[in-house]
Write a structure and sequence with these properties.
By secondary structure, the chain is α+β, with helices and mostly antiparallel strands. β2 and β3 form a beta hairpin. The longest helix is centred in the N-terminal third of the chain and has 14 residues, at 2-15. It has a 5-stranded mixed sheet. Strands 1-8-7 form a 3-stranded antiparallel sheet. Strands 4-10 form a two-stranded antiparallel sheet. It has helices at 2-15, 31-38, 71-78, 88-95, 140-147, and strands at residues 20-24, 46-53, 58-64, 68-69, 83-85, 112-116, 124-128, 134-139, 150-152, 155-156. The chain has one domain: YbaK/aminoacyl-tRNA synthetase-associated domain (YbaK protein, Alpha-Beta Complex), CATH 3.90.960.10. It is built from 5 helices and 10 strands.
Length: 157
């Protein structure tokens, strides 16, 4: 299943004329481990989080790996009273990915995607590509162009 998911990401990027680099590495489970194995600064990583609104709908929130998501700020942007992190079971059901390997393409799962402006402070970004052992690096502006997120400020240090 992981290889199929990676193929979908590559097809999406290729279809949009995006340049990217795929790398394989030892398994990583945290943003810190990922930055170390990739040999990049922590801030260039993109954390993709699946969240659930009080009303029951799911969305994806993207923040730079050196930041934390501010759920109250995101709830205001989403125009809901409250959002919470989806459970590992919900994340797997919605994305087919384990927590820590969710790729930042909410559009592949029909999820509205919200991108924190902190990600745009980087020229290049990197993220897990559905597997704990595969990463993709690409330009931040190309990620935005591909996923067409709602951009806002909803992270904290």
């Amino acid at each position: 299943m992981g290889a199929l998911q990676l193929k979908l990401i590559k097809e999406l990027l290729d279809r949009n004329g995006i340049r990217y680099e795929v790398s394989e590495h030892e398994p990583v489970y945290t943003s810190e481990q990922a930055a170390k194995v990739r040999g990049v600064e922590l801030k260039t990583g993109v954390k993709a989080l699946v969240l659930k609104a009080v009303e029951g709908s799911f969305v994806m929130g993207l923040v730079a790996a050196d930041r934390k998501i501010d759920l109250k700020k995101l709830a205001k942007i989403v125009n809901t009273n409250k959002v919470r992190l989806a459970s590992p079971k919900e994340v797997l059901k919605i994305t087919g990915c384990e927590v820590g390997s969710v790729r930042p393409f909410g559009n592949l799962h029909s999820l509205s995607t919200y991108l924190d402006r902190s990600i745009l402070e980087n020229d290049m970004v990197n993220f897990n590509a559905r597997l704990h052992t595969v990463s993709i690096e690409m330009k931040a502006r190309d990620l935005v162009r591909t996923i067409r997120p709602i951009v806002g400020i909803f992270s904290k240090t």
